[in-house]
Amino acid sequence: MKNVNARKLATLRVKGTPYIPSSETPQKVKHTAGRHRTHGRKPPLHPSSKRPESSSETALA
Fold first, then answer.
1. pLDDT digits (tens, 9 = 90+) for 2-58
2. Rounded Cα gap, residues 46 and 37, in angstroms
3. In angstroms, rounded to a whole number, what is the distance separating the alpha carbons of residues 47 and 5?
4. How far apart are CA 61 and CA 58, in angstroms?
5. Running DSSP on this structure, what letter comes out for residue 20?
6. Where is this region: Disordered (predicted)?
7. Residue 24: φ, ψ to 5°
8. Who contacts 25 (Cβ-Cβ below 8 Å, separation ≥6)?
9. What is the pTM of this model?
10. What stretches of 1-54 show up as alpha helix (H) in DSSP?
């Protein structure tokens, strides 16, 4: 994630645009990170997660 932030910072710097953390970047990062942190694994959209035999699903549920 640091690489992405650094990349964006560099891009904005090259463009000459001031880097505003309160803009959209933190929101996007927060959304992705929060989602991944909440699940801690592949989202329940996968068909395999529907199978009750899934050990990860049983362990978490």
1. 676 666 656 655 565 565 655 554 445 555 555 555 555 656 665 654 555 555 555
2. 17
3. 33
4. 5
5. -
6. 1-61
7. -100, -25
8. 5, 8
9. 0.16
10. 2-15, 25-39
Radius of gyration of the chain (CA): 18
Dihedral over Cα of 47, 52, 55, 61: its sign: positive
Cα–Cα distance for residue pair 40/17, rounded to 1 Å: 35
Distance CA 20, CA 26 (A): 9
30/24 Cα distance (integer angstroms):
10
Place of tokens 């009750």: 52
